[in-house]
Amino acid sequence: MLHANPDEHPFALYNKDTSRLSFRGCPFVMMQAENEQGSLLPKSFDEEKSIAVRRNITRPRTKEYAIVVLLTSMIWMTVSFGYGAAQMTNGFSKARSFRKLDCGNSTVEAKDLGCIFDPLAFLWVPAACYDTETTELYKETVDWSAYDAPGGTVKKPKGRKLSLEEMGMSAGKTFYWTSGIDHVYHCAYMWQRMHKMCSKGQCQQTDGNSRNLLHTQHCSNSMIKAALGDPEKQQEVGVQTLAGFSECFIRTR
């Protein structure tokens, strides 16, 4: 059974009525329960703590070091994000310095506005804010395939593999599924993008997911669970995603 409680997963911005899903800025990403389809996420905070404690007792120290490195990296990324967000807030105090670009609320509008579908962010993004470099690195590094149904593994998926065009055209309408390992790489490269843009003082000139703290919290939880979990589980196709539409802001002076 799929999680459907926003209180359990505050980063999942959705309503129980899927006809009223919020697609702007942050796509809908939902993980299946660990005891059913190998979710990377716990069903509750207490479960997350119990999993961490159980595995910490038996796990070799080398893996503990890896987890420490991962958590340290997350802290630095959070600090960097906070600094960039402060820059963005200061910038917005001068409203005339920025111009908002939008992709509308449908694939027709997105295309008419010249937006590009970004498979890394799962979003249609204004062309002026599309980060080609990071997306291409992601595509070269991992099998980023998406499927029209869950189940199976990357090597033997149960669903039909979607083209990039089909992924984009599904935005705001139908779900698609990716593997756990693809989701981990998605999070890693989204953080690289955020750090790169914020280090240039351009936090606001990127996709809405990179700027969304709830998405960063979601990715943090996912990567921690991946570090603690079974690597074989990451090959399973069970991450449900609903692509969306992003806005961004470019400096005008």
What does this 3D model show about the protein?
This protein has one domain (48-251). With 253 residues, the chain is an alpha+beta fold. The protein is globular and about 50 Å long. The chain has helices at 34-37, 45-58, 61-92, 107-112, 132-141, 164-169, 180-199, 213-228, and strands at residues 28-31, 98-101, 116-118, 123-125, 176-179, 237-242, 244-245, 248-251. The strands form 3 sheets. The chain has a 3-stranded antiparallel beta sheet with strand order 1-6-5. Strands 3-4-7 form a 3-stranded mixed beta sheet. Strands 2-8 form a two-stranded antiparallel sheet. The longest helix has 32 residues, at 61-92. Mean pLDDT is 75; it is low at 1-26, 30-62 and 88-95.
Order of helices and strands: EHHHEHEEHHEHHEEE
Uncertain segments:
1-26, 30-62, 88-95
CA distance, first residue to last residue: 50 Å
Helix content: 40-55%
Transmembrane segments: 65-86
Keywords: Membrane, Transmembrane, Transmembrane helix
Which tags fit this structure?
single chain; 253 residues; alpha+beta; three-stranded antiparallel β-sheet; three-stranded mixed β-sheet; 43% helix; globular; disordered N terminus
